[in-house]
Design brief:
The protein is 75% helix and 0% strand. The protein has 513 residues and is mainly alpha-helical. Helix 6 runs antiparallel to helix 7.
């Protein structure tokens, strides 16, 4: 067996056993991305990047709004002109460095007034630099396999929280410099990876039309992203307005985020229980915990509830980013374009949520009932969305896509010299040969292993293709009650709790080549 076949065989074994391969490049990617996540939290969650504005001041919310709007417009440009941006990849890190530090440079000039338009322009330029960092790290994330992606994001956020914790205990006179250094450290790690990590050099240009044609998304994930981000923006507005006045509020939030990210790391490596369905269906709970107490609790009680909601929403962000990476790999999409499209709606939701928070916390347009009306309206929107949108996996998976992805990711492990390039693939058998037959044989092997009946085997095959109970009812000409009963019994026998868990289980089944 040659080296390529031996490497492929080893990775198949690792995936079947649920192992996550971590090497030097993934570790460096986690470190570099952690600086970015720390910068993101400090920029969007605090007013430390706007030292000329008093904490809680109305202008501080305007700064965050301008920043988020600039991110949205920049991501729209990347999505709309993804082919041009792809060709500019060699110089994007330089633009990101210059733009991401624009607000700090404006802060350092003593003659710049806090209400000067110069600051607005600086915040907007920082937003553009932030967007460039998002799409560049998305390229690295797209080179990971599905299991590594969630570990990458969770670990990056966990280490990022450690940087934020160190930032909070630093002398205030040095904090501005540290905020300035975070994006520079992140870009330094990215440039190193781009120079020495071979798969970066072999990323192919996927034109916009081809990528759009491969996308299997509906309007549901877009709406889910916007509405969950509205909740995040609303809570951020509360933190900007009142968080500075509560003792140890920043430390409470950071320690809570450290715990939740540690939990996500353990789940992504060992448990693998909390997938998209679970996270999405818990959204309403987090929203209710965070927003309803705003109407009647004191400041300390509101702070605790807002921290819980913020942590829950951040879990949704992690799962959403992992789902986007999974979708990119399943359907071989253009990474920059796909991530720009998804994150564009995320930051649009933050803009809307921040605007809602401005109305609720800074104005009395509806008199004393302003806060109550805005809060209850948002909760009603969240309830409707949770009932009608967040009830299914929003990233559909079909048989061919799963089979392509499974074999494609096996031929593209993460190490210094094993990209899924044509030369490496030439050393092994054709990975796409008989892909539908392979997936069916995996389902049949799983059915035998778990003692499923012949009818349950037919239902299993449709479930593993991503079909729902209504589709199974029509396909097998059985009642909806019977279809749901078969699904329940299959879940019980195979000890899974969702379609995604079932698909993951079938994907790990080993069959003879």
């Amino acid at each position: 067996m040659n080296d390529a076949k031996r490497q492929r065989s080893a990775l198949v074994q690792n995936q079947s056993e649920g192992k996550i391969t971590i090497d030097l490049f993934l570790a460096l990617g986690i470190l570099g991305s952690s600086f970015f996540f720390a910068w993101m939290l400090l920029v969007f969650g605090t007013t430390l990047f706007t030292n000329k504005i008093a904490s809680g001041d109305q202008l501080s919310l305007v700064a965050h709004g301008v920043l988020a709007l600039a991110v949205v417009l920049s991501l729209f440009f990347v999505w709309r002109f993804s082919e041009l941006v792809f060709r500019l990849r060699p110089v994007l890190p330089l633009f990101a460095v210059l733009l991401s530090t624009a607000n700090l440079l404006a802060e350092l000039f003593p003659f710049v007034d806090p209400e000067s338009p110069v600051l607005l322009v600086a915040w907007a330029l920082t937003g553009i630099g932030f967007a460039l960092l998002v799409v560049q790290w998305s390229e690295f994330n797209s080179l990971l396999n599905i299991g590594q992606s969630k570990v990458f994001i969770s670990s990056s956020m966990f280490i990022g929280m450690i940087w934020v914790l160190g930032f909070l205990v630093t002398n205030p006179q040095y904090q501005g410099i540290l905020v300035f250094l975070l994006p520079l450290f992140s870009l330094a790690a990215f440039i190193f990876l781009k120079r020495y990590y071979r798969p970066f050099l072999e990323i192919e240009l996927i034109d916009r039309k081809t990528s759009n044609a491969r996308t299997h998304l509906s309007w549901k994930p877009v709406l889910s992203t916007v509405i969950s981000s509205i909740a995040l923006g609303f809570i951020l507005a509360w933190f900007i307005k009142y968080g500075h006045g509560i003792p140890y509020m920043d430390f409470l939030l950071v320690f809570a985020l450290l715990l939740i990210m540690l939990f996500m790391i353990v789940d992504s490596v060992h448990w693998k229980k909390f997938g998209e369905n679970f996270v999405m269906r818990s959204f309403l709970l987090f929203a209710a915990i965070g927003m309803l107490p705003l109407l009647f609790l004191g400041d300390e009680g509101k702070a605790v509830c807002c921290v819980i909601m913020f942590c829950g929403l951040l879990v949704i962000v992690v799962q959403g980013n992992s789902a986007i990476t999974e979708h990119i790999n399943l359907f071989h999409l253009a990474p920059m374009q796909t991530v720009a499209f998804g994150r564009m709606f995320s930051y649009l939701g933050i803009c809307i949520g921040t605007a809602s928070g401005y109305i609720a916390f800074w104005t009395t347009v509806l008199g004393e009932a302003t806060l109550a009306v805005v809060t209850v309206t948002l909760i009603l929107i969240f309830v409707i969305e949770a009932v009608f949108v967040m009830m299914e996996n929003n990233y559909p998976i079909d048989e061919e896509a799963i089979t392509q992805s499974s074999i494609y990711m096996v031929s593209r492990p993460l190490d210094s010299g094993a990209p899924g390039n044509k030369r490496a693939e030439a050393d092994i058998d054709d990975p796409l040969r008989d892909r539908q037959g392979i997936w069916r044989r995996k389902c049949e092997a799983a059915a035998v292993a778990y003692g499923l009946s012949s009818r349950q085997k037919e239902v299993l095959f449709l479930l593993a293709k991503g079909r729902n109970a209504e589709y199974i009812t029509n396909e097998l000409v059985i009642s909806l009650h019977t279809a749901k009963a078969h699904i329940y019994n299959i879940y019980q026998k195979m000890n899974v709790h969702s379609r995604q868990e079932l698909i993951n289980l079938v994907e790990k089944v080993q069959i003879d080549s």
